[in-house]
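Hello Y.,

Per our agreement to keep a running log of every chain we model this quarter, I'm adding this entry. I've kept the format consistent with earlier entries: sequence first, then predicted structure.
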Amino acid sequence: MKFELPSLPYAYDALEPYIDARTMEIHHTRHHAGYVTNLNKLLDGRDELASRTLEDIISDIRLVPDDIRQGVRNHGGGHLNHSLFWQIMGRNKGGEPSGPLGDAIRSSFTDFASFRELFSKTALSRFGSGWAWLCLDSADRLVVLSTPNQDSPIMQGHVPILGLDVWEHAYYLKYQNRRSDYIDAWWNVVNWEKVGELFVHRHEMVSQTRAV
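Predicted structure for the entry above:
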């Protein structure tokens, strides 16, 4: 079992002026890379976990041996969370989602503006370090929630399709303590096409499972 740091699907400066290039570089090559390195060290020689995916491990963290459980929770969750985070951003993005995802957001939250307000409030009110998420719950409904530190929503049985990192290392160089400004700026880089793909893929998987 050997995990690798994924490449970004864009250049470090692609999200300027909303997220600066230096922050992206440090975030990717030091923070995310650190999670990957430490996760590999923790799982080295752990044959009992070798046949399981990281998603399986994190979703049932109680099965991880006590001596490495918290480390795997932190670093494995960090790897999963960031791997999604990079995907759902891009240059010249933002706006509002269309298609099935747009319809589902309007159905679940009345309109996009209400969803955005709820999501932003959830991100802003997360005390300390953590994440804000748009997820599909076990009943395949859209929900907004937050998690502390590097905990993943899959630990609660949810499937994340949109996540915002509100650890200070994600924004401090440009925004200092102004998390609200960072959150407002981040909406300009959300890649709704990718989030929509994740939403549709999840629904297709659920439909196939129910058909069986």
